[in-house]
Amino acid sequence: MKFTARYPQDNVNVSRTHPLTELAWMLGGLVSIGVLLFVLLGLATDLAVERIPPRLETWLGNQALEQFSGQDSPALDQRLQKILAKLPADSILHNYQFHIFLDKRDDVNAVALPGGTIVVFSGLLRQVESENELTMILAHELGHFAHRDHLRGLGRGLGVTVASALLFGKDNAASDLLAKSLLSVQSQYSKTQEQAADSFGLAMLERVYGNCSGATSFFARLARERKSRLPYLLASHPHPQNRIDSLNREIRANSCPLEQVLPVQADLQALIAAATD
User: Which of 221, 212, 220 is nearest to 261 (CA)?
Assistant: First the structure.
């Protein structure tokens, strides 16, 4: 008599459900877990942004600064201190020790890092044509600090990194790895955050000079170079013309005077020349 193996008809290990149905349930469960983790990390990030102590934020900033090559810039620090001196007494920015790091890349950009470092790229510096424009740019970056955008822009990984640092210590290899992985992606700000930072910059420009001259001229040159609005549909930054329109509305609404801008001073001209080499 030949033995023929048969599957049991009724057993906990035998499913009566079609394999495709089981696959659908499994995929649905994985997606649900993914969505739940996404939501929880978002909540953790919001919680972390409001509660990160200054020392931990400085550690995060030092990790991020390793991605840049360049040097501190006393000439730019001098301009930054001039703005900081005009901050309201209750400003959260008084909790920071700000300084500027000049990176000799051609990017027309600046980046606010956790802890108070502002990285200015040579490409942006070469575009500056007045002291007022530079003040507007630096004050815009301060606006990101004021609104904590420099931390929010790091995304959901921020909560995980902060939790790791708090649990295992900042010098732990796992914390270092997490921080470097997180900070290897440059902060991305939303269009709303960019406009809010522009508004902050405009207010500081008026505090420093008593007028709003130079608020839009830098963006006007960018707008002439970047006429197409198509690339900005999915970009984190608004089109330069949109920023100009928004700033001009604020200038009119606040009756902010417009006067002659101050030319770039000799020390900054030398810095720009050195950055061009």
Answer: 212
89: how many CB neighbours lie within 10 A of its CB? 5
Length of the chain: 277
What does the CA dihedral 215, 216, 219, 223 come to, rounded to 10 degrees? Answer: 180
Over its C-alpha atoms, the chain yields an Rg (Å, rounded) of 25
Question: How many helices (DSSP H) and strands (DSSP E) are in the chain?
Answer: 12, 4
Query: Can you name the residues that pair with 100 across neighbouring β-strands?
Result: 118
DSSP 3-state of 120? strand
Terminal-to-terminal C-alpha distance of the chain: 93
Report long-range pairs for 176-179 (Cβ below 8 Å, ≥24 apart).
176/63, 179/59, 179/60, 179/63
Above pLDDT 70, what percent of the chain? Answer: 75
Tens digits of residue pLDDT in 123-141: 999 889 999 999 999 999 9
Three-state DSSP at 277 gives: coil
CB 141 within 8 A of CB 197: yes
Q: In angstroms, rounded to a whole number, what is the distance separating the alpha carbons of residues 175 and 166?
A: 9
pTM of the model: 0.76
In angstroms, rounded to a whole number, what is the distance separating the alpha carbons of residues 242 and 92? Answer: 28
Residue whose structure tokens are 């005009």? 86
**107 phi and psi angles, rounded to 5 deg:** -60, 135
**Residue 102 and residue 122 in contact, taking contact as beta carbons nearer than 8 Å:** yes
> CA 208, CA 86: separation in Å to the nearest integer?
6
- How far apart, in whole angstroms, are the C-alpha atoms of residue 73 and residue 272? 11
